[in-house]
Amino acid sequence: MNATDSLIERANKVLAPNYRQQPIAIVRGQGSRVWDADGKEYLDFLGGVAVGVLGHCHPAMVKALEDQARTVWHVSNHFYIPRQIELAEALLARTPFARRAFFCNSGAEANEVMLKLARKYHADQGHPERHEIVACKDSFHGRTLFTVTVGGQEKYQHGFEPLVPGVRHVPFGDVKALEAALTDRTAAFIVEPTLGEAGVIPAPPGYLPAARELTRKAGALLCLDEVQTGMGRTGRWWAHEWEGITPDLMSSAKALGGGFPIGALLATEEVGAHLTPGSHGATFGGNPLACAVALAVVGELERGVLERSREVAAHLHERLSLLVTGGRVTRVRGRGMLLALVLQGVKASEVGRRARDNGLLVNPIGEDVIRLAPALTLTTTEADEAALILGAALAAAPSGV
Ligand SMILES: *Cc1c(COP(=O)(O)O)cnc(C)c1O
Questions:
Q1: Fewer Cβ atoms within 10 A, N terminus or C terminus of the chain?
Q2: In angstroms, what CA-CA distances link 282 with 103, 104, 118, 235?
Q3: Which listed CATH number (3.40.640.10, 1.20.120.420, 3.60.20.10, 3.30.1050.10) goes with 75-286?
Q4: Which is the catalytic residue, given 103, 140, 172, 260?
Q5: What is residue 400's predicted lDDT score, i.e. its pLDDT?
Q6: For 3-57+306-396, which CATH superfamily applies?
């Protein structure tokens, strides 16, 4: 038995069976490449689910982590944490609408506090009846009970009822439906600029500006979930910059720590001020290790990685678009380094399996979407290599869905 098979056998005995892992065990990574337990090399276009903006073991992240590991790891928010203050300053400097940052450990947690704060903001002004959260069908906001209720995918709710009351769903991209759903009981509308887990579906043009206008008119807050789309993933710091709008609240996680767990809520002064002493907290939130690594990520993006990624992403997009002529890709969706191939006549899982066999890791979603979230440090050579492997995988996969 090879090393991979024996790891899978052990995993199947001891791990909760909640994940559908691809059948490889990754033991090492460098840049956009990883190696499995039997020494096979892969180009990583799954990117730890859109986390690895700087690729694996980027020297700046390694140095930040090592330096911090020798200094202090964890002290709790019973004290001021210099790295946390620096990170807040760095993020807020790149997020003009926001004046307040709160740190936690994941995307779900960042959304949890975003939703809690939206309710508290209105409750504090004497309007506890303004507690409804409007969210989109097919959206994904995390796996806590509140975020799974707000997320628009029933398959993630089954068995966990009763869900959190006061949540309603509207079709993503439908301005009329949103307008009808916003009332004087609405606390906030929460939306992803691009539906990530649903298969990289960008908001239709005009939808987010309309959402901004409608929430303002209705006296409700606009909450953007930029957990997947933020930190340069779409070619700008935040995806909402493409739309020329600003939210009241925004969540970030995934790429924020480049692989070290950290989440953040960024808020306007007006709303952020309502996160009053004692109202919310997280033991590990914004601890020195996490903030040191996130600072390294912000620094690298700023020092040319984000800018260079736009050119490579444009090249990748162009190369992937050529796959359409093969007849099995109907289009390429997304922006920057968050892309999806939409397939026809062939199963995403079959294409994914063949790509993996040929040394490329991708993320099949549902029956007909392949999500690609490579590092922003990807080179054009690596982009070409991935496009070639995908082309071959598409051609080799059996017909049928
Ligand atoms: C991944 C994701 C989350 C959840 O983040 P976790 O860190 O897994 O809790 C929330 N929202 C969006 C848009 C995501 O892509």
A1: N
A2: 8, 6, 18, 31
A3: 3.40.640.10
A4: 140
A5: 84
A6: Aspartate Aminotransferase, domain 1 (3.90.1150.10)
Residues with C-beta less than 6 Å from any ligand 1 atom: 106-108, 111, 140-142, 192, 196-197, 225, 227-228, 253-254
Query: Is the separation of the CB atoms in 393 and 348 below 8 Å?
Result: no
pLDDT recorded at residue 287: 98
DSSP one-letter string for 263-311: EEEEE-HHHHTTS-TTS---TTTT-HHHHHHHHHHHHHIIIIIHHHHHH
227 CA to centre of ligand 1 in angstroms: 6
Span from the CA of 9 to the centroid of ligand 1 (angstroms): 29
225 carries an active-site annotation: yes
pLDDT at 71: 98
**Residue of 44, 225, 248, 368 with catalytic role:** 225
Reply yes or no on whether 172 is catalytic.
no
> Per residue in 299-314, pLDDT tens?
999 999 999 999 999 9
